[in-house]
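Sat 14:20. Reprocessing the chain from the morning session after the first attempt stalled halfway. Input below, unchanged.
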Amino acid sequence: MAKSASMVAMSSRPLDEPVLRIRPRRGFASLNLGSLWTHRELLQRFTGRDLTLRYRQTALGVIWVVLQPLLGAGAFSFVFGAIAGFSSSGGTPYFVFAFAGLTAWGLFYNVLTRASGSLVANAPLVSKVFFPRLILPCSTVGSSLVDFAVALVMLAVLVLIGGASTGWALLTLPLWVAVIIAQALGIGVLLSALMVRYRDVQYVLPVASQLLLFASPVAYTLAAVSHRGRAWLQVNPLTGVLEAFRWSTLGGQEFPVSALYSAGWAVVLVLGGFALFARMERQFADVI
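Finished this time. Tokens:
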């Protein structure tokens, strides 16, 4: 009797009753980018911690932010300017020209290297504490921007001393800064996910970065390169945005149309890097 009663009760349920299926998000949606805003205080704490640890127990502290591109510009001025005979564009002193390129490159390099190593550097947190993992590579943008702002002030001083005229092009500077960050963060997020599983990435990255530095117009103009070499350089997504950065800060040249190519690549790199990160994120705690 009890069995028949239960069968009657089951048969009395409506057949069209909806079934709720709870499934994890997949693909790009699993990133839940809104969580970055929800956990913005945690994002700020990671950024502050990165700044504090970076200059702890250094005699010069934040002065290194300015000193590094100054020394680099001096070295480039000697090698490319004095020995190789390269010149800048628009009558800008070569030292100022090189410093501007290194300021933009420094922003790209800092975001790229800090973001790519952020998960491995915080392995205990990733394996034991639940929080949006994307916060770690994204938090490196804040600390890199602080370094960039300090170097940018020094660049402004050099531009005034050198007598460069920027004009309205200076208003476009935030756009090129955003493109540089987007490119670096897209690659950095992708490499951070790969580095969790393949530690080889941390050994390949410094070499690849060094090659990219010389394959980008950081210390030279496109006009100084042969026609054939120029065609290869323009394939580099960094070429256009570096030229646009100098166009906005130093003036004295036409707007580089290749900057639009760089902006397009920034979108592709962000979408691609974040998509791969979302695909691999579930395995981080087990593999790291």
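The chain is about 70% helix and 0% strand.
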